[in-house]
């Protein structure tokens, strides 16, 4: 049975520390040492080696906090959600439709069909727990009304990156 050599020898750890202090990226360190980028990140973490945040990172964090200092919810919208919004609203600039959501079609999990809205009503396990049950078009998980709640458009939804 072959003997495996350890990934992190004393020599590699010293090289890691030197490269880290020199400001090399994890990718550059990994290429020079001969390990994966994830191995470098993990070892840096275990050694408690961290870099100070750059000015851009601090500005981004400040921008993503509200006035109380609590982080705001992420605003990035995945492509699928963007496509769902486009389907629901017809186009990104269309006004948000308002209106009540029909409550007549509520159903249990056993009654939930393929083209029915899966929006949960109440708390799972509660006596009155059920699903919306309204018609969900084009393979969507929710009816149009609950899709408006689930996928709220915002200014970043229009700028999608490939």
Automatic annotation (TrEMBL):
Matching entries from Pfam families are given as:
GcrA (PF07750)
Q: Which InterPro entries match?
A: GcrA
Specify the superkingdom: Bacteria
Output this protein's name.
GcrA-like regulator
The source organism is Bradyrhizobium rifense
């Amino acid at each position: 049975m072959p003997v495996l050599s350890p990934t992190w020898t004393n020599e590699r750890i010293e090289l890691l520390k030197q490269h880290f202090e020199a400001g090399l990226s994890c990718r550059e360190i990994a290429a020079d040492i001969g390990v994966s980028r994830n191995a470098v990140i993990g070892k840096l973490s275990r050694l408690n080696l961290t870099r100070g945040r750059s000015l851009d990172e601090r500005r981004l964090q400040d921008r993503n906090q509200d006035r109380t200092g609590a982080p705001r919810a992420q605003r990035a919208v995945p492509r699928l959600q963007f496509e769902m919004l486009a389907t629901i609203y017809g186009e990104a600039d269309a006004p948000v439709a308002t209106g009540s959501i029909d409550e007549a079609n509520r159903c249990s999990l056993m009654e939930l069909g393929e083209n029915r809205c899966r929006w949960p009503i109440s708390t799972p396990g509660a006596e009155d727990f059920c699903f919306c049950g309204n018609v969900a078009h084009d393979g969507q998980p929710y009816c149009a009304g609950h899709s408006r709640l689930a996928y709220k458009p915002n200014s970043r939804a229009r700028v999608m990156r490939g």
